[in-house]
Amino acid sequence: MANGTIAGNPAEVSFYEYDGKRKGIAGWLLTLDHKRIGILYLISMLSFFAVAVTLGFLMRLEMLSPGETIMKAQTYNSIFTLHGVIMVFLFIIPGIPAVFGNFIMPIQIGAKDVIFPRLNLMSWYLYIIGGAIAIVSLFTGGGIMDTGWTFYAPYSLRSTANISLSVFAAFVLGFSSILTGLNFVTTIHRMRCPGMTFFRMPLFCWGLYSTAWIQILATPVIGITLLLIILERFFGIGVFDPNKGGDPLLYQHLFWIYSHPAVYIMILPAMGVVSDIIATFTKKDIFGYVPIALSSLAIAFVGYLVWGHHMFTSGMSDTARVIFSFLTFLVAIPTGVKVFNWTASLYKGSIDMRAPMLYVMAFIVVFSIGGLTGLVLGTLDTDIHLTDTYFVVAHFHYVMFGGMGLLFFASLHYWFPKMFGRMYNEKTAKVACWVFVVGFNTLYFPMFIMGYLGMPRRYYDYLPEFQIWHVIATVGSWIMITGMIIMFVNLIRGLYKGAIAPENPWGSTTLEWKVPSPPPLENFDEIPVVTHGPYHRDWEDDSLEVVKEVKKH
Amino acid sequence: MSHNSETLAHEVHEGGHAHRDDVGSKMGIWLFLFTELLLFGGMFILYASYRYIYPNDFKAAALELDPILGAVNTVILLTSSLTVVLGIVALTKNNAKLCMTYLWITQVCGLAFLVNKYFEWTHKIHLGIYPNGPALDDMAQGERVFFGLYYTMTGLHGLHVIVGMAFIGFVMWFIHKKYITSTNLQKLENSGLYWHLVDIIWIFLFPLFYLIH
């Protein structure tokens, strides 16, 4: 690395130092190594995340007092749309699979890479192109989109803002997501090392596997829906335009057929992370491994059938609404299976409350609040009262940000030593977690109350009686952002000044901790052979070896 | 040892796959074909819904289309699917030249399909039957939706024909360069599968638009 010419034995130097044919920046931008691609995703994703957080911060500032505070109504519409689009399409949906899935999953299944490395790089380029198109759409055409992230017809057909280009950006991002999913499913089927049966895979891989199927099966539907919006805007084909006989409700159906399962794209890999972290920091085999693995598939499956609960108030038959309500409740069963099994895994565990574990504990609490309020929204009569109020805003922030967001941070801390070969400061990380969680609840919990009292979402102005809640929420946003700043400063400091990380700092049992930190180019010197489940601890053997060398490659 | 690993690393990260996995490669293309089916699936759902809402308008609109043209195109596409298969068989028997001939026939069929489609569309457009066109704006709402779907679905299908032709074109180039041979024809098979998909989608579009009255 020092002189940029080392291209020695890839088994001895880390993948950062092994340059291959191309040096420097080209070595990164043209890399086919899943680990480098994971890092590329991490950098680009955190950049978009920072932008979206700033937009959220500005929105909260605007809501500090009734009437115009810091921006005009149209600007507010654009900012909440942009915040939603960036967060959903550029951070929450691809987040964990693209970053940690890419980096960790092949190592966890004992593979040297994903099965289609070129396709993997192409996915990243599609992601960047999609992001770039979204940015270009801000400054061209009729200006920043103002439809909300759902692009509901007929408004999205009539708005003079630059909808077509933003929708096209989402289409390209969808393509990226499909290709990643396709790559992961094939990799998990074909690249597992000897002895790594499906039921010996770490639960993170199960989460990714279920997610990848949703990516493959749901994303094309939103692809076509978004394409129709574009065609409708350019040529007026009339499929969703009520003036021409089209039905805007069909738009909502098609949109949510994808976008509800997308919620599970966000959360399933995150739940896989929880299982891995709990097994590590309780020093126990995970309780009910098989039910947890299968519940991921069950959530993925039932998740397809529940889109209608987004449309309880948009006009559907009563029968349909009751059925969708019932199916929505069904998702609680596999989710409950997971949460109860995690809790059982904690029982009599030797719990080591490190930063990743702290984030996981926070997740369980916060996500339970999000899940239970989901039941309130899935119930027909309460939903009709609460639809399109701040209650919904609070609910999905608890589920998405409190779910995927918190676990993204947990993964970042958990795999930080593996990815970068350095440790962060444990104490600071815990402080950051506490500040973040306090801020998070101060920010979003008042929204439940506001929503219950009738504050509609997406409104720029509000009645004075809501102000107290908005002030609390805005102050909460400051605390939460402070927590994130402490966290990232700590991580970045660790990147440069942290102690050198050992191979397995947490005493984990899964395969990625059996290779050096950071891993060498091809992950494994010898192809590992797995002889038992992922969380098995052999207490007699002090080194906790899972891998047995059998053959040279 | 050091040298070996380095070469291997180059194969993995610079050149291609260190290990060839035909089954994995075929799995990948099948999964991709699923996504294509679902893409069209969304459109088929729209078609079904609107047909349910406007049964009479759909009948009236379908009478505007020429089943002869559609049938000709169906025959053309079915033939092209056959020639792709014959091409694959020819290459497994080490007859690259015959394979190329069959693939050329496939390409010509694809082109013929598109030319036929072009004449069909321009004729309709000439009559004023296109979104926001004079004739279509006078029609009933259901007929307008019908033609909206007609242009979108056949247009999207036409786009897939072009993509399929490009796919086969690349494969032909690879066969010409001997990158694809009788022992390594996964790419050829994959392009064939893609072409069959394009064919199958048309087989559904044809009756839905041209035959059901």
Descriptive labels:
heterodimer, A: 553 residues, mainly alpha, two-stranded antiparallel ribbon, 17 helices, globular, disordered N terminus, disordered C terminus, B: 213 residues
Question: Explain this structure to me?
Answer:
The complex is a heterodimer of chains A (553) and B (213). Chain A contains 17 helices and 2 strands. In chain A, helix 9 packs parallel to helix 12. The radius of gyration of chain A is 23 Å and the shape is globular. In chain B, helix 7 packs antiparallel against helix 8. Chain B starts with a helix and ends with a helix. At the A-B interface, helix 7, helix 8 and helix 9 of A face helix 1, helix 2 and helix 7 of B.
List the helices and strands and how they pair.
The complex is a heterodimer of chains A (553) and B (213).
Chain A: H1 24-29, H2 34-62, H3 73-92, H4 95-108, H5 117-139, H6 155-158, H7 163-190, H8 203-235, H9 248-282, H10 289-302, H11 318-330, H12 332-346, H13 355-378, H14 380-386, H15 390-420, H16 426-453, H17 467-497, E1 529-530, E2 547-548
Antiparallel strand pairs in A: 1-2
Chain B: H1 2-15, H2 22-53, H3 55-62, H4 67-92, H5 96-126, H6 134-138, H7 141-176, H8 186-211
Helix pairs in contact in B: 2-3, 2-7, 2-8, 3-7, 4-5, 4-8, 5-7, 7-8
